[in-house]
Protein backbone atom coordinates (compact mmCIF):
# COMPACT_ATOMS: atom_id res chain seq x y z
CA UNK A 1 0.00 0.00 0.00
CA UNK A 2 1.08 3.56 -0.68
CA UNK A 3 2.03 6.61 1.35
CA UNK A 4 -1.44 7.85 0.47
CA UNK A 5 -3.11 5.06 2.48
CA UNK A 6 -0.94 5.89 5.49
CA UNK A 7 -1.71 9.62 5.10
CA UNK A 8 -5.45 8.98 4.95
CA UNK A 9 -5.35 6.63 7.95
CA UNK A 10 -3.17 9.03 9.99
CA UNK A 11 -5.69 11.87 9.84
CA UNK A 12 -6.85 12.75 13.34
CA UNK A 13 -10.55 13.52 13.30
CA UNK A 14 -10.80 14.71 16.84
CA UNK A 15 -8.33 16.68 18.96
CA UNK A 16 -9.72 16.01 22.48
CA UNK A 17 -6.95 13.64 23.48
CA UNK A 18 -4.05 15.68 22.13
CA UNK A 19 -5.47 18.96 23.52
CA UNK A 20 -5.38 17.48 27.02
CA UNK A 21 -1.67 16.60 26.85
CA UNK A 22 0.99 18.64 28.63
CA UNK A 23 4.77 18.74 28.33
CA UNK A 24 5.22 17.55 31.93
CA UNK A 25 2.86 14.56 31.58
CA UNK A 26 3.12 13.61 27.96
CA UNK A 27 6.70 14.31 26.83
CA UNK A 28 8.56 13.78 30.09
CA UNK A 29 12.05 13.30 28.68
CA UNK A 30 11.81 16.51 26.65
CA UNK A 31 10.73 18.36 29.81
CA UNK A 32 14.00 17.21 31.42
CA UNK A 33 16.16 18.35 28.51
CA UNK A 34 14.92 21.82 27.61
CA UNK A 35 16.40 25.01 29.03
CA UNK A 36 15.65 28.72 28.66
CA UNK A 37 16.94 30.16 25.38
CA UNK A 38 16.93 26.87 23.44
CA UNK A 39 15.73 26.51 19.85
CA UNK A 40 13.30 23.59 19.56
CA UNK A 41 11.45 22.14 16.57
CA UNK A 42 8.34 20.05 17.37
CA UNK A 43 7.18 18.07 14.34
CA UNK A 44 3.64 16.67 14.23
CA UNK A 45 2.69 19.11 16.98
CA UNK A 46 -1.08 18.68 16.53
CA UNK A 47 -2.91 21.56 18.21
CA UNK A 48 0.28 22.62 20.00
CA UNK A 49 -0.56 21.70 23.61
CA UNK A 50 2.91 20.23 24.27
CA UNK A 51 4.58 22.87 22.08
CA UNK A 52 3.20 25.69 24.25
CA UNK A 53 4.67 23.96 27.31
CA UNK A 54 8.07 23.90 25.59
CA UNK A 55 7.92 27.65 24.85
CA UNK A 56 7.00 28.41 28.46
CA UNK A 57 10.45 27.04 29.40
CA UNK A 58 12.56 28.25 26.46
CA UNK A 59 11.07 31.72 27.01
CA UNK A 60 11.40 34.94 24.99
CA UNK A 61 15.12 34.33 24.30
CA UNK A 62 14.37 30.93 22.78
CA UNK A 63 12.61 29.83 19.62
CA UNK A 64 9.98 27.09 19.33
CA UNK A 65 8.42 26.09 16.02
CA UNK A 66 5.59 23.60 15.79
CA UNK A 67 4.94 21.90 12.44
CA UNK A 68 1.96 19.78 11.44
CA UNK A 69 0.57 18.72 8.09
CA UNK A 70 -3.01 19.34 9.21
CA UNK A 71 -3.95 22.99 8.54
CA UNK A 72 -6.91 22.81 10.95
CA UNK A 73 -4.65 21.84 13.85
CA UNK A 74 -2.18 24.60 12.98
CA UNK A 75 -5.03 27.16 12.88
CA UNK A 76 -6.15 25.97 16.34
CA UNK A 77 -2.55 26.03 17.65
CA UNK A 78 -2.13 29.63 16.41
CA UNK A 79 -5.42 30.70 17.99
CA UNK A 80 -4.33 29.31 21.35
CA UNK A 81 -0.72 30.55 21.43
CA UNK A 82 -1.60 34.20 22.29
CA UNK A 83 0.63 35.57 24.97
CA UNK A 84 3.31 32.86 24.62
CA UNK A 85 6.63 34.40 23.57
CA UNK A 86 9.04 32.87 21.06
CA UNK A 87 6.61 30.40 19.48
CA UNK A 88 5.23 29.95 15.97
CA UNK A 89 3.37 27.28 14.03
CA UNK A 90 3.66 26.27 10.37
CA UNK A 91 1.83 23.83 8.14
CA UNK A 92 4.39 21.38 6.82
CA UNK A 93 5.14 17.74 6.12
CA UNK A 94 7.76 15.80 8.05
CA UNK A 95 9.03 14.40 4.71
CA UNK A 96 9.57 17.90 3.31
CA UNK A 97 10.16 20.34 6.14
CA UNK A 98 9.55 24.00 5.23
CA UNK A 99 12.59 25.27 7.16
CA UNK A 100 16.28 25.86 6.62
CA UNK A 101 17.49 26.70 10.13
CA UNK A 102 18.92 24.24 12.64
CA UNK A 103 17.77 23.58 16.21
CA UNK A 104 19.20 22.53 19.58
CA UNK A 105 16.47 19.88 19.82
CA UNK A 106 14.29 18.41 17.11
CA UNK A 107 11.48 16.29 18.48
CA UNK A 108 8.48 14.33 17.28
CA UNK A 109 6.01 12.69 19.64
CA UNK A 110 3.56 9.93 18.63
CA UNK A 111 3.98 10.77 14.93
CA UNK A 112 6.33 8.19 13.37
CA UNK A 113 3.87 5.42 14.29
CA UNK A 114 1.56 6.96 11.65
CA UNK A 115 4.11 7.01 8.82
CA UNK A 116 4.89 4.42 6.17
CA UNK A 117 8.47 5.75 5.78
CA UNK A 118 9.73 6.51 9.30
CA UNK A 119 13.39 6.21 8.24
CA UNK A 120 12.97 8.96 5.63
CA UNK A 121 11.31 11.10 8.30
CA UNK A 122 14.28 10.55 10.63
CA UNK A 123 16.73 11.51 7.86
CA UNK A 124 14.77 14.75 7.33
CA UNK A 125 14.69 15.53 11.04
CA UNK A 126 18.43 14.94 11.46
CA UNK A 127 19.09 17.66 8.86
CA UNK A 128 17.41 20.19 11.11
CA UNK A 129 19.51 19.33 14.22
CA UNK A 130 22.62 21.47 14.76
CA UNK A 131 25.91 19.67 15.29
CA UNK A 132 25.98 18.70 18.99
CA UNK A 133 22.20 19.11 19.25
CA UNK A 134 19.69 16.36 19.94
CA UNK A 135 17.07 14.40 18.05
CA UNK A 136 14.41 13.10 20.46
CA UNK A 137 11.58 10.84 19.32
CA UNK A 138 8.76 9.52 21.48
CA UNK A 139 6.57 6.71 20.25
CA UNK A 140 4.51 3.61 20.98
CA UNK A 141 4.77 -0.13 20.73
CA UNK A 142 1.10 -0.99 20.37
CA UNK A 143 1.74 -4.71 20.89
CA UNK A 144 2.90 -4.02 24.42
CA UNK A 145 -0.20 -2.28 25.76
CA UNK A 146 -1.67 -3.83 28.93
CA UNK A 147 -5.18 -3.67 30.30
CA UNK A 148 -6.38 -5.25 33.53
CA UNK A 149 -8.70 -7.05 33.71
CA UNK A 150 -8.63 -8.04 30.01
CA UNK A 151 -10.80 -5.82 27.81
CA UNK A 152 -14.01 -7.32 26.35
CA UNK A 153 -13.44 -9.77 23.49
CA UNK A 154 -15.36 -7.47 21.09
CA UNK A 155 -12.84 -4.71 21.84
CA UNK A 156 -9.85 -7.08 21.64
CA UNK A 157 -11.04 -8.11 18.15
CA UNK A 158 -11.41 -4.45 17.21
CA UNK A 159 -7.90 -3.72 18.51
CA UNK A 160 -6.43 -6.62 16.49
CA UNK A 161 -8.20 -5.34 13.35
CA UNK A 162 -6.92 -1.81 14.12
CA UNK A 163 -3.32 -3.08 14.20
CA UNK A 164 -3.80 -4.91 10.87
CA UNK A 165 -5.42 -1.82 9.32
CA UNK A 166 -2.36 0.17 10.37
CA UNK A 167 0.30 -2.33 9.33
CA UNK A 168 -1.38 -2.91 5.95
CA UNK A 169 -0.80 0.81 5.29
CA UNK A 170 2.91 0.34 6.08
CA UNK A 171 2.80 1.68 9.65
CA UNK A 172 5.00 0.07 12.30
CA UNK A 173 2.95 -1.05 15.32
CA UNK A 174 6.22 -1.56 17.24
CA UNK A 175 7.73 1.80 16.28
CA UNK A 176 9.09 2.53 19.78
CA UNK A 177 11.35 -0.52 19.68
CA UNK A 178 12.73 0.19 16.19
CA UNK A 179 13.67 3.86 16.65
CA UNK A 180 17.18 3.28 18.00
CA UNK A 181 18.09 1.02 15.07
CA UNK A 182 16.80 3.57 12.51
CA UNK A 183 18.69 6.40 14.21
CA UNK A 184 21.88 4.32 14.23
CA UNK A 185 21.48 3.64 10.50
CA UNK A 186 21.70 7.37 9.61
CA UNK A 187 25.41 7.33 10.57
CA UNK A 188 24.96 10.94 11.73
CA UNK A 189 24.01 10.34 15.36
CA UNK A 190 25.96 9.34 18.46
CA UNK A 191 25.09 8.41 22.04
CA UNK A 192 21.72 6.84 21.27
CA UNK A 193 19.74 6.35 24.48
CA UNK A 194 16.31 4.71 24.85
CA UNK A 195 14.23 5.43 27.93
CA UNK A 196 10.99 3.81 28.99
CA UNK A 197 8.12 6.32 29.13
CA UNK A 198 5.20 4.08 30.13
CA UNK A 199 1.84 5.80 30.46
CA UNK A 200 0.08 4.12 33.37
CA UNK A 201 -3.37 5.02 34.63
CA UNK A 202 -5.46 3.25 37.25
CA UNK A 203 -9.02 3.56 38.47
CA UNK A 204 -8.24 5.63 41.54
CA UNK A 205 -6.60 8.34 39.39
CA UNK A 206 -8.93 11.31 38.78
CA UNK A 207 -8.31 11.14 35.01
CA UNK A 208 -8.46 7.33 34.61
CA UNK A 209 -11.76 7.40 32.73
CA UNK A 210 -10.66 10.22 30.43
CA UNK A 211 -7.34 8.52 29.64
CA UNK A 212 -8.72 5.01 29.16
CA UNK A 213 -11.49 6.32 26.90
CA UNK A 214 -8.86 7.12 24.26
CA UNK A 215 -9.62 3.66 22.86
CA UNK A 216 -13.36 4.38 22.70
CA UNK A 217 -12.47 7.46 20.62
CA UNK A 218 -10.27 5.30 18.40
CA UNK A 219 -13.12 2.79 18.01
CA UNK A 220 -15.38 5.68 17.04
CA UNK A 221 -13.29 7.80 14.66
CA UNK A 222 -10.67 5.38 13.32
CA UNK A 223 -13.23 2.58 13.57
CA UNK A 224 -15.49 4.32 11.06
CA UNK A 225 -12.59 4.56 8.60
CA UNK A 226 -11.89 0.86 9.22
CA UNK A 227 -15.53 0.03 8.40
CA UNK A 228 -15.19 1.96 5.11
CA UNK A 229 -11.94 0.12 4.38
CA UNK A 230 -13.61 -3.26 5.02
CA UNK A 231 -11.68 -4.26 8.16
CA UNK A 232 -14.69 -4.60 10.47
CA UNK A 233 -18.48 -4.41 10.20
CA UNK A 234 -20.26 -1.36 11.61
CA UNK A 235 -22.14 -3.68 13.98
CA UNK A 236 -18.91 -5.15 15.42
CA UNK A 237 -17.29 -1.71 15.64
CA UNK A 238 -20.28 -0.27 17.53
CA UNK A 239 -20.37 -3.30 19.87
CA UNK A 240 -16.64 -2.97 20.62
CA UNK A 241 -17.03 0.73 21.42
CA UNK A 242 -20.07 0.16 23.65
CA UNK A 243 -18.53 -2.81 25.52
CA UNK A 244 -15.28 -0.96 26.03
CA UNK A 245 -17.03 2.17 27.39
CA UNK A 246 -18.80 -0.07 29.93
CA UNK A 247 -15.48 -1.74 30.83
CA UNK A 248 -13.91 1.67 31.49
CA UNK A 249 -16.85 2.89 33.57
CA UNK A 250 -17.30 -0.18 35.75
CA UNK A 251 -14.58 -2.81 35.46
CA UNK A 252 -11.26 -1.45 34.29
CA UNK A 253 -8.51 -1.41 36.92
CA UNK A 254 -5.58 -0.12 34.90
CA UNK A 255 -4.24 0.64 31.44
CA UNK A 256 -0.57 0.84 30.59
CA UNK A 257 0.55 2.17 27.23
CA UNK A 258 4.11 1.34 26.22
CA UNK A 259 6.14 4.28 24.94
CA UNK A 260 9.86 4.87 24.62
CA UNK A 261 11.77 8.07 24.10
CA UNK A 262 14.88 7.63 22.00
CA UNK A 263 17.42 10.43 21.86
CA UNK A 264 20.75 10.91 20.13
CA UNK A 265 23.34 13.61 19.57
CA UNK A 266 24.17 14.84 16.07
CA UNK A 267 27.83 14.33 15.21
C1 LIG B 1 -1.04 11.39 17.50
S1 LIG B 1 -0.84 13.05 17.01
C2 LIG B 1 0.44 13.60 18.12
C3 LIG B 1 0.36 15.07 18.43
C4 LIG B 1 1.39 15.53 19.49
N1 LIG B 1 2.74 15.40 19.00
C5 LIG B 1 1.21 14.75 20.78
O1 LIG B 1 2.10 13.99 21.17
O2 LIG B 1 0.14 14.93 21.39
C6 LIG B 1 0.06 12.89 15.46
C7 LIG B 1 0.19 14.22 14.72
O3 LIG B 1 1.08 14.02 13.62
C8 LIG B 1 0.59 14.76 12.52
N2 LIG B 1 1.16 14.16 11.31
C9 LIG B 1 0.88 12.96 10.76
N3 LIG B 1 1.59 12.77 9.63
C10 LIG B 1 2.35 13.88 9.48
C11 LIG B 1 3.30 14.31 8.50
N4 LIG B 1 3.59 13.52 7.43
N5 LIG B 1 3.91 15.50 8.64
C12 LIG B 1 3.61 16.31 9.70
N6 LIG B 1 2.71 15.97 10.64
C13 LIG B 1 2.08 14.79 10.54
C14 LIG B 1 -0.93 14.62 12.65
O4 LIG B 1 -1.63 15.63 11.92
C15 LIG B 1 -1.12 14.73 14.16
O5 LIG B 1 -1.34 16.05 14.56
What would your notes on this structure say?
There is one protein chain. With 267 residues, the chain is α/β, with parallel strands linked by helices. The chain has helices spanning 3-10, 16-19, 23-26, 28-33, 49-58, 71-80, 118-127, 153-167, 179-185, 208-212, 214-228, 234-251; strands at 39-43, 63-68, 87-91, 103-109, 129-140, 146-148, 189-196, 199-202, 254-257, 259-266. Helix 8 (153-167) packs across helix 11 (214-228) and helix 8 (153-167) packs across helix 12 (234-251). Bound molecules: S-adenosylmethionine. Residues 10, 12, 18, 21, 43-46, 50, 68-70, 73, 93-95, 109-111, 114 line the site of S-adenosylmethionine.
Please name the defining characteristics of this protein:
alpha/beta; binds S-adenosylmethionine; 12 helices; 267 residues; Rossmann fold
Q: Approximately how much beta-strand content do the residues carry?
A: 15-25%
Distance between the termini: 35 Å
The tally of beta strands, per DSSP, is 10
Overall 3D shape = globular
Highest-level CATH class: Alpha Beta
| H and E order | HHHHEHEHEEHEEHHEEHHHEE
Amino acid sequence: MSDEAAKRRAVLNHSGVIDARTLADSHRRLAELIRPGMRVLDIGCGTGAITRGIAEITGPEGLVIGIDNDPDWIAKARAEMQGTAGISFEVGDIYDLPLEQQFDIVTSARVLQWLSRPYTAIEQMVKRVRSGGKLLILDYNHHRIEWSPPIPSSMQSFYNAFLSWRSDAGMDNEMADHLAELMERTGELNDIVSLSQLEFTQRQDPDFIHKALIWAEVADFKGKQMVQDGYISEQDRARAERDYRLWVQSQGEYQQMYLQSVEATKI
